[in-house]
Amino acid sequence: MPGLRQGVVIDVPNWKVPVIAKKKLLKQPEIAVDIKFTTEDVKEMPDKQFKVFEQQFEKRFTPEFNKMSNGWFGDMQKAMDTTEDALDKLSKDKKGDVKKLMEQVVDKTNANLVAKCKTWIEMARKLAQKAYDEAYEASIKEMKLKITKAKAKIGVKIAIMVLLTLTAAAVTIAASVVTMGAGAAIAPVVLAALVTAGKALLGSVSEVTKSYDVLANTLAAVEADAKAILKSAVALNAAKQKTAGTWDKVKAFKAYMSADVEALDKHVGQLDKFAAVARDKTLRQVKELQEIADQLAKAKAGSPEADKLYAESIKVQKSMDGAFKALAEISEVSKQALDAKEAAKKFSPEDVTKAMPKLVSSLTKLKTAVGVIKEVAGPIKTIVTGAQKIAAKK
C-alpha cells in the first residue's frame, strides 16, 4: 500500500461519513479524500532520516487531522439533524407537493455542505503542508545536515461523492400524505422486505457484540498499562532518592518503565485497529437497521405495531450515535500514547506519566461505546421479532 515514501498521506476514494440519520429520512453521505505531496525531498532520504520524517509527520498531522475531521463531521451531523427536522415538519404540515418540497430542503443543505467542504480542503492543505515542513526540518536536524527548505508541495482533493438524498422511508412518508389512510393494507413486497431485513439485522447483532468484546478486552489491557506506568514512576522516584549521587537515569528507566511503555504502544496499536473494526461493523448494522426502519415506515399506515417499532428504531439510532461519538476518542488515546513513546526515547519518566491522565480520561469515554452497543442489542432483537410478527399476520 502506498505511503509517505510514495508521497501518499491519505487516499480513500469512498469514505462513509460517520453520521447517522436519526429519523431515517436521509441516506448516509460518502466523501473521497486524497492528500499527497511531491516526492523530490523524500525519494533520496536515507532510511534513518526518512524514519524520523515519518514519525514527526505522523505526530504533527494525524491527531490534528482527526480533530478537524471530527469537527466537520459534527457540522454534517447537525446539518442532517436540522434537515430531517424540516422534512418531518413538512410531512406533518401536509401542504403542497410534499416530495418536491422535501427535495428542495435537501438540495439547499447539500449546497451548504459542498461550500463547507471547500473550506475543509484548504484547512487540510495548510495542516499537511505545515506538518510536512516541520517534519522535514526535524529530519534534517537529526542527521546534522545543513538546513534547507522543503521543496515539496501538498495537493489536497476532498469531494462529497454521495450527497444527502431522501431514503425510501422519506419518499414513502411524502406519498402517504396524499395516498394513504388509516388501515391501509401492507404491500406483500414490504412484508417480504421486513423478513429479509430482519434476518440481516439479527445476524449482525452477535458479530457486532463480539467486536466490542474484543475492544473492551483491549481497553482493559491499555488501562492496565497506564496503571503500571504510574506505579513505575513511583518506583523510579524511590530509587532516585536511595541512589543519590550515583543515579543513572537511563538504566533506571529501562529497569522500571521501558517494558510498560512498550506494552502500552503495542496495546494502543491494537486498540486503534479494533476500534476501526468496531466502527465499520456498527456502520453496517446501522445500514441494516435503516433498512428495516424504511420498511416499517412503509407499513405504519397498515399496522399500529409497525409505528411503535419504527419509533423504537429511531431511539436505538440515537443511542448508536452516542457510541460513534465515543469511538472518536481513539485519536486522543493514540496521541497520548505517541507522546509517551516519544518521551520514553528520551528516558523522561516525568513526560511519560504526564500523558497518562488524558489517556485514562479518553479510555473512560471509549468504554461508553462498549456499554451502549451492549444495551441496544436487546431492543434490536425486539424490533426484529416485532417486524417478523407483523409479516406473519398478513
Give a written overview of the molecule.
By secondary structure, the chain is mostly helical. It has two domains: 179 residues, no CATH class; 212 residues, Methane Monooxygenase Hydroxylase, Chain G, domain 1, CATH 1.20.58. The protein is 75% helix and 7% strand. It is built from ten helices and three strands. A three-stranded antiparallel beta sheet has the order 1-2-3, covered by helices on one side. Helix 1 packs antiparallel against helix 2, helix 6 packs antiparallel against helix 8 and helix 7 runs antiparallel to helix 10. The protein is globular. It starts with 7 loop residues before the first strand and ends with a helix. About 3% of the residues have low confidence. This is Methyl-accepting chemotaxis protein. Keywords: Membrane, Transmembrane, Transmembrane helix.
Shape: globular
SS class = mainly alpha
At the fold tier of CATH, the topology name of the largest domain is: Methane Monooxygenase Hydroxylase, Chain G, domain 1
Distance between the ends: 52 Å
Total domains: 2
Low-pLDDT runs of 5+ residues are: 173-183
Strand order of the largest sheet: 1-2-3
Sheet with the most strands? 3 strands, antiparallel
Strands, count: 3
Query: What's the total helix number?
Result: 10
CATH architecture of the largest domain: Up-down Bundle
Average pLDDT over all residues: 81
N to C succession of SSEs = EEHHEHHHHHHHH
- Sheet-strand content, in percent, reads 5-15%
Which percent range fits the helix content?
over 70%
Keywords: Membrane, Transmembrane, Transmembrane helix
Protein name: Methyl-accepting chemotaxis protein
